[in-house]
Amino acid sequence: MSDAEWAIVRDLLPAPGWLAGRGGRPEGYCHRQMIDAVRHLVDNGIKWRAMPADFPPRPRVYAFFARWRDAWLVAKLHDRLRGAVRAAEGRDQEASAAVVDSESVKADATVGFAPRGYDAWKKINGRKRHLLTDTLGLLLDVLVTPASTTDRTPPTSCCPQQASACRG
């Protein structure tokens, strides 16, 4: 991670409990190392157990990842970066218009019956991914449904941060 990227990410990370006066002992690893480890896992598509020895121990990295996931850190970071890109383009940080599209994709045999469906129009047994982007093509939201879901059917669930927008 470059220094410029770290400057953007650092302010978004939650403060450790011991720094916020909630007790606990100081953390033994730098947050930047933890983010680098998670980025390495995602970039290379490896399993947690295959993490190289250059990074902190796997259980510690996973504990940080789980804490950040539960705090919706990735969604907040994505929203902040999208706002910065929109501001650089001379637009408002919040999108006023959006584009919706969906695509049916085949599901692997290991995918259970419940999240699958049959799209009779495209003759695909699998899932359908719905994407919501702004007019610049930047991602706003994603929803995965069984392929049998029609595009006219309103979503039954979406990101909890935008649940009020989905309910209308």
UniProtKB/TrEMBL annotation:
Domain Transposase IS4-like: 95-153
Region feature (Disordered): 148-168
Matches recorded under Pfam families: DDE_Tnp_1 (PF01609), DUF4096 (PF13340)
Annotated Insertion element IS402-like domain residues: 1-78
Entry protein name: Transposase
Organism listed in the record: Streptomyces spinosisporus
